[in-house]
Batch of 2 targets.
Target 1
Amino acid sequence: MMIVNEKNTGTKIDYATNGNYLVLGADDDLMLNLSKYERETEKQIDITRDMDGMLLIGTGQTSYFVAQVTIPAKDGTFNIDRCTLDLWSIEVPINEEQAAPENEVA
């Protein structure tokens, strides 16, 4: 099981894991094969939600920061248990109380 951290209070996005896959959203809105993103250095994947409620990878023109996945540097066979999923409230826009990660522009 992934390491999961809730970064603030409020409702978080539904998520599940299946093997190397992380599935986000109540209707399986976004599925990521995390082993595909493993590199020689740590990799972070930002998950955001736009005004229409669609999940996106990256920040771009989004209103809500939903999650950040951290995949540690490659160390043998991929193991999802080494990955971290940080979750933010899906109810708070980035420009209000929600604090984006340090590497994000709010």
Note: The longest strand covers residues 64-71.
Target 2
Amino acid sequence: MDIKKYRQRSRSDRPAPPTIKSYYSTSTSIKITWEYNTYPNAPVTGFILHHRVDGTPWQETHVAGERTMYTLHDLLCGTKYYCFLVATNSAGRGNSSEIISTKTAGSCKLVLNKFR
């Protein structure tokens, strides 16, 4: 009988935090790349990319497990965003990466309604 097959999952089976390697911002997007450890007994099946602006709730974007890059689109220009990653597998969510902050390029201009 294979004992490993029947052992109970523990916190150590959850994936280690991904390491954010780089990030790049444009006026409306943020591209993030990362690395992660692989585990033969509980491989990474996906990632959850969390992002937000100050004073707003965290938004979650689910990313497939084989990916090591993701670009957030349709963001506000000239705005500071906070992001972090969590790896997932069959045992659940792992711990989070460090939180990064980056500002999208440009400055938002107020467009006045010409029909006031």
Note: The radius of gyration is 18 Å.
